[in-house]
Write a structure and sequence with these properties.
By secondary structure, this protein is mainly alpha-helical. It contains 5 helices and no strands.
Length: about 120
């Protein structure tokens, strides 16, 4: 049985993935993020949800190194470095990459965590 703190961190990540996916459902394409003020606000709000996902992954890896790779089959280093990019080099972010991460990778992350949590409770 995984550490309770890890399970709580995974639940926190799910809160963010849910909001991102809900918000992305109204984003037609990457260019919309730069098309007007509404797009820019949505972009900023989504990035504000991406950062704590990386932060929680980082904290999980401090508690149990290798947990993310072993259980979710993801490279935690990539996620943590992306979090660092958001936190420290926001101006270098590319709206097209954000769109791709949120539309393609976020549903996968959400599903992997849900499947893991479901199996860990059995």
């Amino acid at each position: 049985m995984p550490d309770t703190i890890i399970l709580e961190r995974l639940e926190l990540i799910l809160e963010h993935t849910e909001v991102i996916m809900q918000r992305m459902s109204s984003v037609p394409d990457a260019e919309w993020f730069i098309s007007d003020d509404d797009g820019e606000k949505m972009y900023d709000s989504i990035i504000a949800r991406l950062q704590p996902i990386g932060e929680n992954i980082k904290k999980i890896e401090k508690i149990e190194p290798g947990f993310i790779k072993k259980t979710l089959f993801l490279n935690p280093g990539d996620i943590i470095r992306f979090r660092d990019l958001i936190a420290h080099h926001y101006e270098l972010l590319d709206y097209q990459i954000i769109f791709t991460i949120c539309s393609k990778d976020m549903p996968q992350l959400d599903l992997l965590i849900r499947d893991y949590l479901k199996s860990s409770l059995q």
